[in-house]
Amino acid sequence: MGQQTKSTKSKPRKRRNDGGNRVVFIIAAVLMVIYLGGRLSNAFSAAPETTPALHVTVNDSFTSDGWFFRDEEPIDNATGSSVKHIVYSGERVQQDAPLAIIYSDQESMDLSRQLDPLEERISLLDTALQSTSDSSNIAKLDQVITLTIEQLAEQVKEGSGSSVASAASSLRTLSLRREAGNVDTNEVSAERDALVSEQSSLEHQLTGRTTELTASSSGYFSEVVDGYESILTPSSLDEMTVEQFDKTVAQQPSAENSNSLGKIVKGFNWYLAAKIPAEQAERLQVGQELTVNFTQASMESKVTVHSINHQGNSDTALLVMEGTEFSSEMVSMREQPIEIIIATYTGLKVPKSAVRVQEQTDSDGKTTQIPGVFILSGSIQKFKMINELFEADDYYVVEQSATNSDMLVERDQVIVQGKNLQNNMVVKT
């Protein structure tokens, strides 16, 4: 009987343990659900990461190394005598136009150097004498002087030698006209007569001791002669291959023109040849307009594709571009690092990670894929369409619309990372 009583009492204790375990399990499950729910809630309600849509201008371009091919004629100084240039590098000259004065010896050149300030001073005195009877309005003269100073600054920046000299002379003349009321005509006349007499004496001493050097053809003058004038000619570009180009530019220039006074770039166009990747050559065609950025000189020039030579399976091609713009720097360039600009795009910069596609169904049931981005306007997500203009490695340049409110505008806060992106959805910020 004792054993039966002990056996009967042990069964209820076992049932109570099972019930306790069940309660613990339920509580743990509830806590887990609450925890996961909180995590999911936080994930969906966390403020999204944004970046502003910025206005940018980017080039669709690639880089290379360009070589100038021009029709150039060195100007020989057979006598080796002293020379004074009359024109500056980059200036356009006509056939038979004077380029320089050649002096028979150093003494004659020294005499010429004395003449220059005399001629300038006589010219200023003549202006002063003429200005004494000029009743020009002072206020108007001040305006013209200010304008001339601005022009002079711009011409100095552009490096136009003749224009700078002309503007400086005009400025001196205008300054004298403004001070005409303070001029003593008797003193000015006496000084002028003395200078004219000295000028005549110097000119007499120079008689027969100078020769004028003139341009053999029309074109642009350059003081720089590098020896490539007879090597890098436009005619040599006909049917030139990449291999021939490499051999041509590798030639050592001749020193036979070491005594040259400069050169004339004949005609009014030039050619720029460059090796480029074959995949870039496939994007170009003869006659296409490009822009070349001379990166070292910080200057750009419009060009036209003259020819593209790509042979077989070669990974490079020879691009020849033709240009007509000249400057004092350009006529002296030979080899230059360049950026070849195919097109320039202006719009809004959008990270690729922000781009989404939304489906739109019209009244006929036709579904269209609309590319766009979500923006954060206050605490509301909004979807805005984009029209891609240019694709870079990690971003797009897209069109900015001034009239369509459904398209992206500058400074919109573009969502680059977020959860549960939906149009017109309120989010925690």
TrEMBL record:
The chain crosses the membrane at residues 20-38. InterPro entries: Beta-barrel_RND-rel, BSH_RND-rel. Residues 78-253 form the RND related barrel-sandwich hybrid domain. Keywords: Membrane, Transmembrane, Transmembrane helix. It comes from the Bacteria. Signal peptide: none annotated. This is Membrane fusion protein. The keyword Membrane applies. Residues 270-342 form the RND related beta-barrel domain. The keyword Endoplasmic reticulum does not apply.
